[in-house]
Design brief:
The protein is an alpha+beta fold and about 200 residues long. It folds into two domains: about 100 residues, SH3 type barrels (Roll), CATH 2.30.30; about 70 residues, Substrate Binding Domain Of Dnak, Chain:A, Domain 2 (Up-down Bundle). It contains four helices and seven strands, in the order E-E-E-E-E-E-E-H-H-H-H. The longest helix has 23 residues. The termini are far apart.
């Protein structure tokens, strides 16, 4: 059993509107005897809800009919409830699940990281063009540190380590702001820098 595999699962009945019975589900995590799944439904109207993903049958997932992954009904079940593997699904569900689990205002999202990568890259480009005469050596050292932290941020992003990625981006921009405050770079852009 691996992440993003689709299995036929017997989901125990519960009170309320939760999915139950034998149905396909996608595996999110496997830990000893407990498996975290997202159940599917074939009801078309389910796709109108937020945090769902419509999945069409194909040779990869081996679904019999078009289904909707009900991400908002994520749950943990005993692995003995998994009957047989049907197929696999793409990583698109990861992106939707990430946004479901993490509030965009208080957590680090891909969109937020892309925004700060863009801002810091623009600030670095502008700083390189506006080095104050006589401060070239200081500027060289600052720029090297910024580029190193940007490289670290990209590495952490590739590993989906968003916390350290965001931290590295902040360090990168902090060096640029320090350069501006210490009169190494002559910039006036208050959108990109903390100017005096």
């Amino acid at each position: 059993m691996k992440k993003n595999e689709i299995w036929l699962v017997k989901i125990p009945e519960q009170s309320g509107q939760e999915q139950s019975g034998i149905r396909p589900a996608i595996i999110i995590n496997q830990n000893l005897n407990i498996t975290t799944i997202i159940p599917f439904t074939s009801k078309e109207k389910a796709s109108k809800y937020k945090f769902t993903l419509r999945i069409n049958p194909n040779k990869q997932n081996n679904l019999v009919k078009t289904s909707t992954a009900l991400i908002f009904q994520i749950r943990a079940i005993d692995k003995n409830k998994l009957s047989r593997k049907l197929g696999e699904e793409s990583e698109e569900i990861d992106f939707i699940l990430e946004n479901y689990l993490f509030d965009k205002k208080t957590n680090i999202t891909r969109e937020k990281l892309e925004k700060y990568f863009k801002i810091t890259s623009e600030a670095l480009k502008k700083a390189k063009k506006n080095i104050i005469k006589g401060k070239e050596n200081y500027a060289k050292e600052i720029i090297e540190m910024v580029e190193n932290y940007l490289s670290d941020a990209k590495h952490f992003q590739s590993k989906k380590d968003f916390v350290n990625c965001f931290g590295a981006l902040n360090y990168a921009h902090g060096w640029l702001d320090a350069g501006v405050r210490l009169d190494v770079f002559d910039v006036k852009d208050r959108e990109l820098f903390t100017v005096k």
